[in-house]
Design a protein that fits this description.
By secondary structure, the chain is α+β, with helices and mostly antiparallel strands. The protein contains 4 helices and 18 strands. The chain has an 18-stranded mixed beta sheet that branches. The longest helix has 13 residues.
Length: about 280
């Protein structure tokens, strides 16, 4: 099974072309491939390109726990770079269909930077989804182990819970992230961002990614967190999102359409041995 591996600010994905496999990957196979000791190791698998009548390319995104994600900003930038590297695109602008909606992608210069029109952010509970009566989920409180967190929820095709803090850390994110991800308030689980406002053009986030765990960077998390910062009046419409893996640039329109730009790095390509799927 042939694979390609890229990272976007330390958020790494394996790309597997459906043409190189005889059938869809099982949940067990996905988990083994993504495992950092028993497999290739990654934050997820990008399975594509797939045929679709709705856009230029189709893409399925899988988390390391075997579940399927609706959308990934970094994954979309990585997939765009893969298409460009393998000369599967005829122009530097094209569309990609995901379970979280269609996005428009543009390759910049030598392919090392990619811009993606991520779609529109919504704060409405029915769209995210968040339990309870229909509403915009802004400045609500969630309690975990007697600890109260003020949060906003958002979707850009996948669910996010954004918590504003005076200080953030990887340790606190690892501590609280899993419990918030799996809280009953979020019927489809949720991605979690702990956010610190730096100034009107800069925010800092730590990320717990649904189905993947602690993550160095995330494009959809950057989009959601920036949208929340703007919605609450803390930041203007152009925001640099600072993460442990590096920075992503976010621009927000009046209708909360998100334009995301950031780097992509190719890591490796090779062949996955069928031996890794043997149970031991």
């Amino acid at each position: 099974m042939k694979f390609f591996k890229y990272h976007a600010l330390g958020n790494d994905y394996i790309i597997i072309n459906p043409a190189d496999v005889q059938k869809e990957l099982s949940s067990d196979q996905i988990q083994r491939i993504c495992h950092r000791n028993y497999g290739v190791g990654s934050d997820g698998i990008l399975f594509g390109p797939l045929e679709t009548t709705e856009s230029d390319f189709g893409l399925r995104i899988f988390n390391p726990d075997g579940s399927e994600a609706e959308k990934s900003g970094n994954g979309l930038r990585i997939f765009s770079r893969y298409l460009w590297d393998n000369r599967l695109i005829l122009a530097d602008r094209f569309t990609i269909y995901t379970a979280g909606g269609i996005v428009k992608s543009q390759i910049q210069a030598d392919g090392s930077n990619v811009t993606v029109e991520m779609g529109k952010v919504s704060f409405h509970s029915a769209q995210i989804p968040v339990g309870g009566e229909p509403r915009e989920v802004i400045n609500e409180t969630i309690t975990i182990d007697h600890q109260d967190f003020s949060f906003c929820a958002a979707t850009i095709g996948n669910p996010h819970c954004v918590i504003i803090c005076d200080e953030i850390s990887a340790a606190e994110t690892r501590k609280w992230g899993p419990q918030i991800e799996n809280h009953p308030l979020f019927p489809n689980r949720t991605n979690v961002q702990f956010m610190k406002i730096l100034d009107r053009a800069n925010i800092q986030i730590e990320i717990w990614e649904r189905g993947a765990g602690y993550t160095l960077a995330s494009g959809s998390s950057s989009s959601a967190a920036a949208a929340v910062a703007h919605r609450l009046g803390h930041c203007d419409s152009d925001i640099v999102v600072h993460m442990p893996g590096g920075n992503i640039d976010i621009s927000i329109s009046d209708g909360y359409e998100i334009l995301m730009a950031g780097p992509v790095t190719k890591v490796a390509e090779g062949t996955i041995s069928p031996e890794i799927f043997n149970k031991k």
